[in-house]
């Protein structure tokens, strides 16, 4: 048996010339194994229950993923085979559950290069090109958003992280006026901080408030209209009625709610926020992709009035996770909140001489060169290329809505705005409660590995959801998924009644 390679072999260092060739060979072998496993698959998920999958891993990795002695390339190739056979296949047109797109090959390949060189963007000398690339990428995105030259931004590990950082900025900006609270939190302040968002805002807003020491009680949900958009009049009334010790830190508008894709009326909300002197953050984690599309862009009219904006390029720009970006109309907001000089990373005189990284923009220290995959994608496809992908998914959502509306056993919850379609299966008899049937039919599809659809709640009842982010899926694919849903519904109904 050949001796397993050891870490002392120079060709195992990815960025060595010989190592780089080895990466190329390994990627070729791994992708070949993965392709073979993919060909044998029959759906977007493995046809396994969670318990069966756990048993499979126990059998495949009896010592777990950390054996005493390494198994060399063979072990890696076996892992690649199992992974490709049993992971989610988002390129399967029947995968339509979450805001998790199939990633583009150009982005995935560029991401390999980011791993090879392992640059970090916290300091200039940890990754000079990556630092400059991120600066330029941010500039392109601030311009796309409609911001001026003083705007700034940073890539973050997700929409949750971007929203957290936006609310950190809001907290510090609002309370700095009362005293310098930076680094001291809110201890001792006899005020109740308040953050407004719609009742359909993402839970990361309340999580951010908890993390920032504001408490989840700081979040005041504002009612939405029949089209799932925040009511600006309600927001206005709430702000006007604030108590003496209540300090409004921010209004968070959502541009693309997770379930409905609805976009809060940004110009009206911006006007209310401005009238009350409150910061505005727009969570466009999902809807931000509309900026790339001429057809969809009007949905985001007014976004440039926001102080900060979250856009998730790992949702509607088909990037491997994660590639979120937090943009600020005034780039100084970063300096005021996360600006930091650390002796061993970015001392003043290095900074003055231009040797400055992005440490002061981020809550992270070591940070991947995520700009590389995004820039590679944008350079390859251009804004129009990404926009066309979103338009294609929007077309699929409209088709799905028409099909659902025409189906006797399915009920549409709302007209699609972006690329999601919320609906449910209507049981034929009262013996099988709708909630139980809809929950069970989704699990049945998961268990069979036949289709991967989402689930949510509306008006206290279970709904199903298609999140359509595969621009190569066809209308026939969508019809097949909906047929599978109706068939699974009928089968479950029979079991339950
Ligand atoms: C509107 C909205 N904001 C924020 C997030 C959180 O994004 P992430 O999962 O990248 O943290 C999501 C996730 O779906 C979302 O839909």
From TrEMBL:
Keywords: Decarboxylase, Lyase, Pyridoxal phosphate. It comes from the Bacteria. It holds the Pfam family Pyridoxal_deC. InterPro entries: PyrdxlP-dep_de-COase (IPR002129), PyrdxlP-dep_Trfase (IPR015424), PyrdxlP-dep_Trfase_major (IPR015421), PyrdxlP-dep_Trfase_small (IPR015422). Its cofactor is pyridoxal 5'-phosphate. Belongs to the group II decarboxylase family. This is Pyridoxal-dependent decarboxylase. It comes from Streptomyces litchfieldiae.
């Amino acid at each position: 048996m050949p001796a397993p390679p050891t870490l002392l072999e120079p060709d195992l260092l990815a960025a060595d010339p010989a190592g780089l060739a080895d990466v190329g060979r390994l990627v070729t072998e791994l992708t070949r194994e993965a392709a073979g496993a993919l060909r044998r698959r029959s759906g977007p998920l493995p046809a396994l229950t969670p318990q069966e999958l756990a048993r499979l891993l126990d059998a495949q990795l009896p010592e777990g993923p950390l054996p005493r002695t390494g198994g060399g390339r063979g072990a890696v190739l076996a892992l690649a085979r199992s992974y490709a056979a049993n992971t989610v296949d988002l390129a399967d047109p029947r995968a339509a559950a979450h805001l998790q797109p199939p990633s583009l090959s150009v982005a995935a390949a560029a991401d390999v290069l980011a791993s090879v060189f392992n640059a970090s963007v916290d300091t200039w000398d940890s990754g000079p090109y990556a630092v400059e690339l991120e600066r330029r990428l941010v500039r392109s995105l601030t311009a796309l958003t409609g911001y001026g030259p003083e705007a700034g931004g940073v890539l973050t590990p997700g929409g949750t992280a971007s929203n957290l950082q936006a609310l950190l900025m809001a907290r510090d900006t609002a309370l700095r006026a009362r005293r310098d609270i930076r680094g001291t939190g809110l201890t001792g302040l006899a005020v109740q901080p308040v953050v407004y968002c719609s009742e359909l805002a993402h839970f990361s807003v309340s999580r951010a408030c908890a993390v920032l020491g504001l408490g989840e009680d700081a979040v005041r949900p504002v009612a939405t209209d029949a089209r799932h958009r925040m009511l600006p009049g309600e927001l206005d009334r709430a702000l006007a009625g604030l108590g003496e010790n209540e300090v409004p830190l921010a209004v968070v508008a959502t541009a693309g709610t997770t379930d409905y894709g609805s976009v809060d009326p940004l110009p009206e909300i911006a006007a209310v926020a401005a009238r009350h002197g409150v910061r505005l953050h727009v969570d466009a984690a999902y809807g931000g992709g509309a900026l790339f599309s001429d057809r969809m862009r009007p949905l985001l009219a007014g976004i440039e009035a926001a102080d900060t904006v979250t856009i998730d390029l790992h949702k509607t720009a088909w990037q491997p996770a994660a590639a979120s970006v937090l943009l600020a109309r005034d780039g100084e907001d970063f300096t005021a909140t996360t600006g930091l000089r650390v002796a061993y990373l970015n001392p003043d005189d290095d900074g003055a001489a231009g040797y400055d990284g992005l440490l002061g923009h981020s809550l992270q220290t070591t940070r991947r060169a995520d700009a590389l995959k995004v820039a590679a994608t944008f350079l390859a496809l251009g804004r129009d290329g990404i926009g066309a992908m979103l338009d294609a998914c929007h077309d699929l959502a409209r088709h799905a809505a028409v099909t659902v509306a025409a189906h006797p056993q399915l009920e549409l919850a709302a007209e699609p705005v972006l690329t999601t379609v919320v609906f449910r299966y209507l049981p034929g008899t009262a013996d099988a409660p709708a909630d139980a049937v809809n929950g069970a039919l989704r699990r049945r599809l998961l268990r069979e590995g036949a289709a991967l659809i989402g689930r949510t709640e509306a008006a206290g009842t279970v709904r199903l959801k298609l999140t359509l982010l595969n621009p190569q899926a066809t209308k026939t694919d969508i019809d097949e998924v909906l047929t599978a849903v109706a068939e699974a519904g009928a089968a479950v109904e029979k079991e339950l009644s």
